[in-house]
Structure formats: C-alpha cells, structure tokens
Amino acid sequence: MDKDENTVKATQPLLDNLYGLHGNAILSRCGPIVDPVIFRDPLHDDYYSTTSTFKNAGGYERRLGGRMGLFGRIQIEIDSDKNDGNASASAAGGGGGGAGTTSMMTIVVGSIHKLGEQNTNIHHQQNLEKLQHYIGTSSVVMGGDQNPEHLVRSFVGIDGFRVVQDRQNTWPASCDGYGTQRGDQILTNMKQVVDSDSGRGTEPTTILPCIRNYGVGINIGNHALTSVVLQTPNS
Predict the structure, then answer these.
(1) Considering Cα of 174, then 206, then 145, then 153, what sign does the dihedral take?
(2) Mean pLDDT, range 101-125, rounded to an integer
(3) Cis preceding linkage at 172, omega within 30
(4) Which whole-number Å values give the CA distances from 118 to 41, 60, 137, in the listed order?
(5) What are residue 181's DSSP bridge partners?
(6) Per-residue pLDDT, 71
(7) Is residue 40 helix, strand or coil?
(8) How far apart are CA 72 and CA 34, in angstroms?
(9) Is the model's pLDDT at 60 over the cut of 80?
(10) Is the confidence at residue 77, as pLDDT, over 70?
(11) 70 membership: H or E segment, kind and range
(12) How far is it, in rounded angstroms, from Cα 76 to Cα 55?
C-alpha cells in the first residue's frame, strides 16, 4: 500500500464505516456556539502507528486528535418571571413582574471522547480543574463515547454532575442491534423534564444508528444515538 495515501494496512476484514468520519462535534439550534475550548490528553504514538493497533482500530482509523473534550457556550431565552437567579438580568431592563419579559441564560455544552481515560495522573487533574473553571456556575450538558466507570470516578460529584441513567447498550451498534456495551454517556447538572403522568424525570431515548428506506437498512455509524430532554433551573 502506498504510504503517501496516509493509511495503514489493516489486519481486520473490511469495516462498514471504513470511509466514515470520526471525531467530536457540537450541533445546536440555539444560535452561535461561542467561547470554544478543547481539552486534550497527551497524544500517543499508537494513534499514528504504521502497524495495526487497538487505538487505530486495527489500522482503519489513523486518528488525528486522540482523546479529547470539545466545549462551548450557547444562550437560550427564558421567562424572567420564573427566574431563580441563575439567569442573567432581564432583557426588558427590570426582570421583575412584567408580563412576557425574557432573559438569556448561558449553558455549557460539551462533546467528549474518552477524555482522561488514558491518564489518571497530574495532567488529567489539571484538565479537570481547567474544565471546572470553564464551567463555573453554569448549567452544563456533555455527552460522548466515555467509559461509565471513568465518569463516576472523575466527573460525578463535581458541581453536582450526574450520569443520565440508561441501561440500553449503544456499542457496537448497527441496523441489527445495540451491541454489547453501554459506550455512550450523557453527563449533566440539569434535571430531566418531569413526566406529567408519573411525576418522575422523563427517560432517555436510544435508537439504532440506522436509516431504513424501501426495506433496506443503512448503517450511519457504529454507536447508537442517545438523547434526553432537560429543563433549565428556573423551569
């Protein structure tokens, strides 16, 4: 194989997502994502190895970024009449009593890919401290490919973070099933929207990474898609 192609010879059979994209992303309908920041683990040579390794998916994913977390801030409009102090001052100038007054609230959003799983040392601790400083007192929701035990060990308990519980497996998922592991997590300090019938937080939803048309299923990835509906602190 020509080395100029920047690929490596793989020892595994052809994978469905051989030519797919691999990386972190944040998609939002809430206007621009501002103040972006990346927290990285030290890069390991295994990601760029010219031989097949576990970290480059047997030679099929010659990764460029390594383990990381991508974070940004979005702003959402909230009802100032219900403001509990977590939102900024009212856009109407007073914030108190006026019908229909609104204000803007900042929420930190993050996409993580095994951040810190390779590092339980001082570098990881420094990343956590920087992340805490970045979040401050904001509401936050982050998600991605992360080991649940690592999340509990490293993140949960910091500023009220918790893992949104869902027992559904997510990896390696396909049109045929959800796989054998819960490989994707959602972490937040926000409450789940309350179900009006049960009075409990609404359950997260996990669906297969599959598009079906004309009876044919097309895999769009090897991780299932998981989501949850959250409420702002003043809701």
Answers:
(1) negative
(2) 83
(3) yes
(4) 8, 21, 28
(5) 171
(6) 96
(7) strand
(8) 6
(9) no
(10) yes
(11) strand 68-79
(12) 38
